[in-house]
Protein: CD8A protein
Amino acid sequence: MTRSPALLLFLTLGLCEYGHRAYKMSVKFRDSSTSHLQEGQRLELECLSGKEDSGVFWIRLDKGGTLHFIAFITSLSKLTFEGSMKTSTRFEARRDGRFYRLTVKSFRPQDEGNYFCLMISNQVLYFSPGQPAFFSGQQYLHPTSLSSAKIPSTFCSGPFLFSTPAETSKEKQLNFFCDIVIWVPLAGASLLLLIALTVTITLCQQTRRRRCRCKR
Structure:
Protein backbone atom coordinates (compact mmCIF):
# COMPACT_ATOMS: atom_id res chain seq x y z
CA MET A 1 0.00 0.00 0.00
CA THR A 2 1.34 3.46 -0.90
CA ARG A 3 1.66 5.55 2.21
CA SER A 4 0.09 9.01 2.20
CA PRO A 5 1.79 12.06 3.76
CA ALA A 6 -0.64 11.80 6.66
CA LEU A 7 0.38 8.19 7.28
CA LEU A 8 4.05 9.12 7.09
CA LEU A 9 3.42 11.86 9.63
CA PHE A 10 1.83 9.39 12.02
CA LEU A 11 4.73 7.01 11.57
CA THR A 12 7.19 9.82 12.16
CA LEU A 13 5.47 10.66 15.41
CA GLY A 14 5.85 7.04 16.43
CA LEU A 15 2.18 6.27 17.01
CA CYS A 16 2.24 2.97 15.18
CA GLU A 17 5.91 2.09 14.74
CA TYR A 18 9.11 2.75 16.58
CA GLY A 19 11.60 5.04 14.90
CA HIS A 20 15.01 3.85 13.84
CA ARG A 21 17.93 4.55 16.07
CA ALA A 22 21.61 4.42 15.23
CA TYR A 23 23.52 1.71 17.11
CA LYS A 24 27.29 1.70 17.33
CA MET A 25 29.13 -1.61 17.12
CA SER A 26 32.80 -2.44 17.43
CA VAL A 27 35.01 -5.49 16.92
CA LYS A 28 38.43 -6.13 18.40
CA PHE A 29 40.75 -8.90 19.55
CA ARG A 30 39.82 -9.91 23.07
CA ASP A 31 43.51 -9.87 23.98
CA SER A 32 44.59 -6.30 23.27
CA SER A 33 48.23 -7.42 23.01
CA THR A 34 47.48 -9.57 19.95
CA SER A 35 49.53 -8.25 17.04
CA HIS A 36 51.44 -10.94 15.12
CA LEU A 37 49.23 -13.91 14.38
CA GLN A 38 50.73 -17.37 14.18
CA GLU A 39 49.37 -20.41 12.41
CA GLY A 40 47.51 -22.74 14.73
CA GLN A 41 46.99 -20.22 17.51
CA ARG A 42 43.65 -19.74 19.25
CA LEU A 43 42.24 -16.37 18.23
CA GLU A 44 39.47 -14.69 20.19
CA LEU A 45 37.44 -11.70 18.95
CA GLU A 46 34.66 -9.80 20.68
CA CYS A 47 31.88 -7.60 19.36
CA LEU A 48 30.33 -4.89 21.48
CA SER A 49 26.69 -4.58 20.48
CA GLY A 50 24.77 -1.33 20.77
CA LYS A 51 21.66 -3.22 21.81
CA GLU A 52 21.45 -6.01 24.38
CA ASP A 53 18.26 -7.70 23.18
CA SER A 54 19.36 -8.20 19.58
CA GLY A 55 21.31 -11.12 18.16
CA VAL A 56 24.60 -10.63 16.32
CA PHE A 57 26.00 -12.11 13.10
CA TRP A 58 29.70 -12.78 12.59
CA ILE A 59 30.98 -12.51 9.00
CA ARG A 60 34.40 -12.51 7.35
CA LEU A 61 35.64 -10.66 4.28
CA ASP A 62 38.32 -12.87 2.75
CA LYS A 63 41.37 -11.97 0.69
CA GLY A 64 39.44 -12.07 -2.56
CA GLY A 65 36.73 -9.73 -1.29
CA THR A 66 34.09 -12.44 -0.72
CA LEU A 67 31.85 -12.45 2.35
CA HIS A 68 31.49 -15.58 4.47
CA PHE A 69 28.83 -16.19 7.10
CA ILE A 70 30.41 -17.60 10.25
CA ALA A 71 27.85 -17.62 13.04
CA PHE A 72 24.69 -16.09 14.43
CA ILE A 73 24.32 -15.63 18.19
CA THR A 74 20.85 -14.84 19.47
CA SER A 75 20.15 -12.67 22.50
CA LEU A 76 19.36 -15.96 24.31
CA SER A 77 22.81 -17.34 23.42
CA LYS A 78 21.51 -19.83 20.85
CA LEU A 79 24.04 -20.52 18.09
CA THR A 80 23.79 -21.14 14.36
CA PHE A 81 26.95 -21.72 12.32
CA GLU A 82 27.51 -22.07 8.59
CA GLY A 83 25.18 -24.59 7.02
CA SER A 84 22.59 -24.04 9.79
CA MET A 85 24.69 -26.20 12.12
CA LYS A 86 24.54 -25.85 15.90
CA THR A 87 28.27 -26.52 16.32
CA SER A 88 31.43 -25.92 14.31
CA THR A 89 34.76 -27.68 14.11
CA ARG A 90 36.54 -24.39 13.42
CA PHE A 91 34.73 -21.81 15.55
CA GLU A 92 33.22 -21.22 18.96
CA ALA A 93 30.79 -18.44 19.81
CA ARG A 94 28.95 -17.17 22.86
CA ARG A 95 27.24 -14.16 24.35
CA ASP A 96 28.46 -12.41 27.49
CA GLY A 97 26.20 -9.46 28.31
CA ARG A 98 26.59 -6.89 25.54
CA PHE A 99 29.65 -8.73 24.23
CA TYR A 100 29.29 -11.35 21.51
CA ARG A 101 32.47 -13.41 21.29
CA LEU A 102 33.90 -15.46 18.43
CA THR A 103 36.83 -17.85 18.76
CA VAL A 104 38.85 -19.31 15.90
CA LYS A 105 40.02 -22.58 17.41
CA SER A 106 43.13 -22.92 15.25
CA PHE A 107 43.94 -19.96 13.02
CA ARG A 108 44.82 -21.05 9.47
CA PRO A 109 45.49 -19.22 6.17
CA GLN A 110 41.85 -19.83 5.14
CA ASP A 111 40.78 -17.88 8.24
CA GLU A 112 42.59 -14.71 7.23
CA GLY A 113 40.42 -11.71 6.49
CA ASN A 114 38.54 -8.82 8.03
CA TYR A 115 36.01 -9.83 10.67
CA PHE A 116 32.76 -7.91 11.11
CA CYS A 117 29.72 -8.25 13.30
CA LEU A 118 26.30 -6.97 12.39
CA MET A 119 22.82 -6.92 13.81
CA ILE A 120 19.30 -6.32 12.52
CA SER A 121 17.13 -3.83 14.38
CA ASN A 122 13.77 -2.62 13.06
CA GLN A 123 14.62 -4.29 9.73
CA VAL A 124 17.80 -2.20 9.38
CA LEU A 125 21.33 -3.64 9.22
CA TYR A 126 24.03 -2.17 11.44
CA PHE A 127 27.69 -3.07 10.71
CA SER A 128 30.77 -2.76 12.86
CA PRO A 129 34.12 -1.59 11.48
CA GLY A 130 36.27 -4.52 10.37
CA GLN A 131 38.97 -6.14 12.48
CA PRO A 132 41.86 -7.33 10.27
CA ALA A 133 43.18 -10.81 11.10
CA PHE A 134 46.15 -11.63 8.87
CA PHE A 135 49.56 -13.15 9.23
CA SER A 136 52.39 -10.65 9.44
CA GLY A 137 52.73 -8.42 6.35
CA GLN A 138 49.43 -9.48 4.78
CA GLN A 139 46.95 -7.03 6.30
CA TYR A 140 47.59 -4.23 3.80
CA LEU A 141 47.29 -6.37 0.66
CA HIS A 142 43.58 -7.18 0.80
CA PRO A 143 40.21 -5.35 0.81
CA THR A 144 39.02 -3.91 4.11
CA SER A 145 35.64 -2.50 3.08
CA LEU A 146 32.29 -4.20 2.58
CA SER A 147 31.32 -1.77 -0.19
CA SER A 148 32.84 -3.94 -2.94
CA ALA A 149 32.31 -7.31 -1.28
CA LYS A 150 31.16 -10.31 -3.31
CA ILE A 151 28.20 -12.18 -1.83
CA PRO A 152 28.08 -15.85 -2.85
CA SER A 153 24.74 -17.64 -3.14
CA THR A 154 25.58 -19.83 -0.14
CA PHE A 155 26.09 -16.76 2.03
CA CYS A 156 22.37 -16.31 2.57
CA SER A 157 22.08 -19.76 4.11
CA GLY A 158 22.40 -18.10 7.50
CA PRO A 159 19.19 -17.33 9.42
CA PHE A 160 17.38 -14.56 7.45
CA LEU A 161 20.72 -12.88 6.73
CA PHE A 162 20.27 -9.75 4.63
CA SER A 163 16.53 -10.34 4.60
CA THR A 164 13.79 -9.21 6.92
CA PRO A 165 11.75 -11.68 8.98
CA ALA A 166 8.18 -12.23 7.90
CA GLU A 167 5.57 -10.27 9.78
CA THR A 168 4.01 -12.07 12.71
CA SER A 169 0.26 -12.20 13.16
CA LYS A 170 0.51 -9.61 15.94
CA GLU A 171 2.46 -7.26 13.67
CA LYS A 172 -0.12 -7.70 10.92
CA GLN A 173 -2.93 -6.99 13.39
CA LEU A 174 -1.09 -3.90 14.61
CA ASN A 175 -0.58 -2.65 11.06
CA PHE A 176 -4.26 -3.29 10.28
CA PHE A 177 -5.28 -1.42 13.42
CA CYS A 178 -2.98 1.47 12.50
CA ASP A 179 -4.51 1.62 9.02
CA ILE A 180 -8.00 1.77 10.54
CA VAL A 181 -7.02 4.44 13.07
CA ILE A 182 -5.50 6.58 10.31
CA TRP A 183 -7.73 6.02 7.31
CA VAL A 184 -11.17 6.07 9.00
CA PRO A 185 -10.73 9.61 10.41
CA LEU A 186 -9.25 10.77 7.10
CA ALA A 187 -12.20 9.30 5.20
CA GLY A 188 -14.65 10.90 7.64
CA ALA A 189 -12.92 14.28 7.37
CA SER A 190 -12.96 14.05 3.57
CA LEU A 191 -16.68 13.24 3.61
CA LEU A 192 -17.44 16.18 5.91
CA LEU A 193 -15.37 18.46 3.71
CA LEU A 194 -17.28 17.26 0.64
CA ILE A 195 -20.64 17.86 2.37
CA ALA A 196 -19.58 21.33 3.51
CA LEU A 197 -18.38 22.18 0.02
CA THR A 198 -21.70 21.00 -1.49
CA VAL A 199 -23.74 23.04 1.01
CA THR A 200 -21.61 26.12 0.38
CA ILE A 201 -22.03 25.86 -3.39
CA THR A 202 -25.80 25.39 -3.00
CA LEU A 203 -26.15 28.45 -0.72
CA CYS A 204 -24.03 30.56 -3.04
CA GLN A 205 -26.24 29.64 -5.99
CA GLN A 206 -29.43 30.48 -4.04
CA THR A 207 -27.98 33.84 -2.93
CA ARG A 208 -26.99 34.67 -6.51
CA ARG A 209 -30.51 33.90 -7.76
CA ARG A 210 -32.10 36.16 -5.12
CA ARG A 211 -29.83 39.03 -6.03
CA CYS A 212 -30.61 38.62 -9.71
CA ARG A 213 -34.41 38.74 -8.99
CA CYS A 214 -34.06 41.90 -6.91
CA LYS A 215 -32.24 43.74 -9.71
CA ARG A 216 -34.98 42.91 -12.18
Summary: The chain is about 25% helix and 25% strand. The chain has two domains: 22-133, 176-215.
